[in-house]
Design a protein that fits this description.
With about 50 residues, the chain is mostly helical. Helices cover about 80% and strands about 0% of the residues.
Length: about 50
């Protein structure tokens, strides 16, 4: 929602953006990996636009 990663990822994977957001939140809460994954996907999104 902040950087548009979930919407972008939902178009690539055909999953609901809502479900992807839930997965990111769960990863942050339980494993601490969600924030890093989110930032990496944001970089991939920016690079793939060019």
């Amino acid at each position: 929602m902040i950087l548009g990663v979930c919407e972008w990822l939902s178009t690539k994977t055909q999953f609901s953006a809502k479900n992807i957001r839930i997965v990111f939140v769960l990863l942050v809460l339980f494993a601490g990996l969600g924030l890093g994954a989110y930032l990496i996907l944001w970089l991939v999104k920016i690079i793939s636009k060019e």
